[in-house]
Amino acid sequence: MDAKDRQIIRELQKDGRLTNQDLADRVNLSPSPCLRRVRNLEAAGVITGYTALVDQKAYGLPITVFVRVRLNSPSQDLITGFEAQVQRIDQIQDCFLLAGSDDYLLRVIVDSLEAYEDFMRRKLHAIPGIASIDTSFAYGVVKQTRVFPVAG
User: Fold this and answer.
1) DSSP 3-state assignment of 126?
2) Which neighbouring-strand residues pair with 109?
3) Does one domain contain both 79 and 113?
4) Theoretical Cys-Cys bridge with 78: which of 40, 97, 129, 146, CB 3.0 to 4.6 Å?
5) Which conformational region is residue 95 in: left (phi greater than 0), alpha (psi within -120 to 50 degrees), or beta?
6) Is residue 151 domain-resident?
7) Do residues 35 and 90 both lie within one domain?
8) Are 96 and 104 in contact (CB under 8 A)?
9) Element (H, E) at 110
């Protein structure tokens, strides 16, 4: 991947609905080579898909919760089971594997505190092998972006 590919990616991250002509203009390429580069990035798995970014409050899910999870004894079976369960829970938007005292950081979105309690009782606590859960509620957003910084 070269600097021109990264420029294409940044422009698509800013606006995934750009026409090939508009994208080509923004990255100073003619349309044909620009489209070829985009298709190559897709085929290589660098561009993994396209999606709409939606305001979660307007959608009806105003509460963001960060949940740190520590497993009892991180055996391979326990890790595999935990990660498989996390994949099936819609409220969990992101799950990061951590270094340090906690094993995972989850980003959870819900519509109310009652919904969060239900999520905890019926979904997260139902996963075997969890030693501890620590919750932080986000009460504002300072910065949120999906555009990568310029590499190098």
Assistant:
1) coil
2) 64
3) yes
4) 129
5) beta
6) no
7) no
8) yes
9) strand 104-110
Q: Give the residue numbers spanning the domain of 16.
A: 3-43
Rounded CA separation 76/42 (Å): 32
CA distance 81 to 60: 30
Q: Hey, is 132 helix, strand or coil?
A: strand
Tokens 């972006």 belong to which residue? 145
**pTM of the shown model:** 0.88
Q: Provide the residue-wise pLDDT of the chain in tens; the chain has 152 residues.
A: 999 999 999 999 999 999 999 999 999 999 999 999 999 999 999 999 999 999 999 999 999 999 999 999 878 999 999 999 999 999 999 999 999 999 999 999 999 999 999 999 999 999 999 999 999 999 999 999 999 998 76
C-alpha distance from residue 129 to each of 25, 72, 143 (Å):
53, 5, 34
Residues 35 and 86 in one domain: no
Tokens of 1: 């991947």
